[in-house]
Structures are given as structure tokens and as C-alpha cells.
Amino acid sequence: MKVVVLVVMIMSVFLCAEPLQQLVFVSMFNGNEDIFIINEDGTGQKQLTESPANDWAPHISPDGKKIAFITERDGNPEIYVMDIDGKNAINVSQNESNDWDPQWTKEGKIVFLSDRNRYWEMFIVGPDGNGLKSLVSNWVPGEHMCWSPDGTKIAEESDKTGNWEIYLGDSQRKSMTNITNHPADDYDPCWNPTGTKIAFVSNRDGDKEIFVISPDGTNLKQVTHNHTDDYSPQWVPVKGK
Q1: Alpha carbon distance 170, 144 (integer Å)
Q2: Which of 101, 220, 228, 235 is nearest to 166 (CA)?
Q3: For residues 23 and 234, is the Cβ–Cβ distance under 8 A?
Q4: Model confidence pLDDT, tens digit, residues 139-190
Q5: Where are the beta strands (DSSP E) in 126-178?
Q6: Are 172 and 217 in contact (CB under 8 A)?
Q7: What is the predicted pLDDT for the residue at 43?
Q8: 154 CB neighbour count, 10 Å cutoff
Q9: What's the CA gap between 61 and 2, in Å, rounded?
Q10: DSSP string over 49-101
Q11: What is the pLDDT of residues 56-103, one digit of tens each?
């Protein structure tokens, strides 16, 4: 009877535990910017891009199946889309100007910034490169911040204390709390899909590394451990969510 009870307890803890999540990030591990994927506990690291050009700013589609990113493999910054395993990469912006900051819409399209008309505009395009059109003219890029999945909280980077820290507050930004509190620079926050963790970049290890922290500033964990720069963390959506 004791053995049965023990097994039931172990199974209960296992079922209640939050499933291990993954992040994609950028690393200079091989001498240029490439995109990698890794488990949040630091295991299972895999390189997704292997172009001699720089690949950076990965953003994952809402269904977790594709990644939009910036690459210079055509000689200038372009928006590409590839499968979550790094295969089938295609150019969706196809312009000789500078294309930046790809973001996915809930409908599975990509919005990005481009200076192809001499000033910054926001464009939208399908993941297959079709349906390109301008949305907003004279766009002014702002300070990096990330909304929680439920839209009630904001995580943002700020250097108002003399070094970059991660702050957390409500949607009105009336009360922002420093959750990193470290003399090193902490920036580029990103919420996980369940709103229980925040990934960010810090140079507290001597170079840029990916860390994960709870919204209340506890449970800090270092995810990457390279003697090079790792940055631009993005969470892979949880399957079935």
C-alpha cells in the first residue's frame, strides 16, 4: 500500500509540473549571428541556421511551426521565414532596402519595418511572401517592451538607474518594479506563452547570455553558457495551447 501511495504522489507531482518549454535565440558561437533553439533548462541546444551571413531577430509564429527572422544572406537585411526545425527558408520581403523587426499577427501574417520608401513604414505580408502591403507610414521605432499573454502586464528594459534593468508593471505603466536588480546590463525581456516566466539577456556572466526569471524576480536561471554573445530570446508556443 505504501508503494502504491508513493507512486501516485510522484505521478501527481509530475502531472502538475509545468512542461519544459523551449526558446530560440541568436548566438555568435560560430563567429557570425546564427539562430539556435534550446530547452529552458539549458539542454537540447540545436543550431537552426548555418548561413555564412548573419541571421538574427527570430520571432515564432502563433502556432509554433515557423520562425520569421532577419538575414543578410542576400546582401542587405531581409525578412525570411523558415520552419521551426530550420528548414525551407524563404525570403518574404524581397527588397534591396533595409527590412527590420518582424512580428507575427494572431492571424499568422508578418508585420515588419522597412525604409524602402526613404522613411520607415510598417508592412504586412503572408508567410509565403504573398499579399505584401503598407500599413503605417512615418513609423518611429520605440523602446523595447513585451506584453504578458493576458495583456495586463508589461516587461520592459530601462537604464534609468544608470544600467539596464528589467522592469515589470501593469498595462498603464503606473508602477514599474525592477525585477533583476543587478549591476550588469539586463535587457530584451520576453514573456513565455503561459505568463509565468520572462526570458532576458544579461552580460553578468562576462558576455551576453540568456536568463529566465519569474515575474516576481525569483527563480533566476541561466539558460546558455557560451563564451560568446547569445541574445534575442523568444519562447516556442506550448503545443496544444
Answers
A1: 16
A2: 220
A3: yes
A4: 555 457 788 888 788 898 989 889 999 999 886 677 889 999 999 999 999 9
A5: 133-136, 145-147, 153-158, 165-170, 177-178
A6: no
A7: 95
A8: 19
A9: 47
A10: ---SS-EEEEEE-TTSSEEEEEE-TTSS-EEEEEETTS-S-EESS--SS-EEE
A11: 999 999 999 999 999 999 999 999 999 999 999 999 999 999 998 898
* DSSP structure class, residue 19: P
Q: What angle do CA 186, 197, 207 make, to 5 degrees?
A: 30
* Closest of 3, 43, 4 to residue 20, by C-alpha: 43
In the beta sheet, which residues pair with residue 83?
Answer: 66
The cell numbers describing 198, all together, are 520572462
Q: How far is the C-alpha of 141 from the C-alpha of 209, rounded, in Å? A: 25
CB proximity list for 72: less than 8 A, separation 6 or greater = 53, 54, 78
Res. 49: pLDDT tops 90: yes
Q: How far apart are CA 40 and CA 233, in angstroms?
A: 11
Which grid coordinates belong to 47? Answer: 543550431
Strand partners, 30: none
Closest CA to 85 of 108, 103, 67: 67
Per-residue cell: 230: 547569445
The span from the CA of 89 to the CA of 93, in Å, is 12
Sheet harboring 198-202: ordered strands across?
186-191, 198-202, 209-213, 221-222
Instruction: Spell out the residues 6+ positions from residue 11 whose beta carbon is closer than 8 angstroms to its own.
Output: none
This prediction has a pTM of 0.78
